[in-house]
From TrEMBL:
<dbReference type="InterPro" id="IPR008995">
    <property type="entry name" value="Mo/tungstate-bd_C_term_dom"/>
</dbReference>
<dbReference type="GO" id="GO:0015689">
    <property type="term" value="P:molybdate ion transport"/>
</dbReference>
<dbReference type="Pfam" id="PF03459">
    <property type="entry name" value="TOBE"/>
</dbReference>
<keyword id="KW-0500">Molybdenum</keyword>
<dbReference type="InterPro" id="IPR004606">
    <property type="entry name" value="Mop_domain"/>
</dbReference>
<feature type="domain" description="Mop">
    <location>
        <begin position="73"/>
        <end position="139"/>
    </location>
</feature>
<feature type="domain" description="Mop">
    <location>
        <begin position="2"/>
        <end position="68"/>
    </location>
</feature>
<dbReference type="InterPro" id="IPR005116">
    <property type="entry name" value="Transp-assoc_OB_typ1"/>
</dbReference>
<protein>
    <submittedName>
        <fullName>TOBE domain-containing protein</fullName>
    </submittedName>
</protein>
């Protein structure tokens, strides 16, 4: 299957918090940071996953926000520290490439105005912000 989702990488499940309908799956990504995904309990069961299972995380570029300063007071579960390694800008949009771990690079589609306001350039320390409900995964 070919997907248009740019952000795809493997992680190992470290925690599953079960609920009556939804659960939260936390995975460690290469480089030691954690990524949380909120999915249905049916999906967890259907995939047959557990602690130690390798999964592939999938995140659309449009589901990632970028911060250049300390972030707190947010309900967003995923705050991945990284370094901007590239920025491609067009008329209205920019694509920020962020290294967040060993062999893990995310792309974030943000407005060109935001990229300019944040003064993004390669080498800038950034945080990729991703709601756990916007992270999908598949069993590897």
């Amino acid at each position: 299957m070919i997907l248009s989702i740019r952000n795809r990488f493997t992680g190992i499940i470290t925690e599953i918090v079960s609920g009556s309908v939804m659960g939260t799956v936390t995975m460690e990504i290469p480089g030691g940071q954690s990524l949380a995904a909120t999915v249905t309990m049916d999906a967890i069961k259907d995939l047959g996953i557990g602690i130690g299972t390798a999964v592939e995380a999938l995140i659309k570029s449009t589901d990632i926000a970028v911060a250049t300063t300390e972030v707190s007071g947010l309900s967003i579960r995923n705050k991945l520290a990284g370094t901007l390694v590239g920025l491609d800008s067009g008329g209205a949009m920019s694509v920020a490439r962020i290294k967040v771990g060993k062999d893990v690079e995310l792309t974030a589609a943000i407005t060109r105005a935001a990229a300019e306001e944040l003064k993004l350039e390669p080498g800038t320390p950034v945080t990729a912000l991703i709601k756990s409900t916007e992270v999908s995964f598949s069993a590897v």
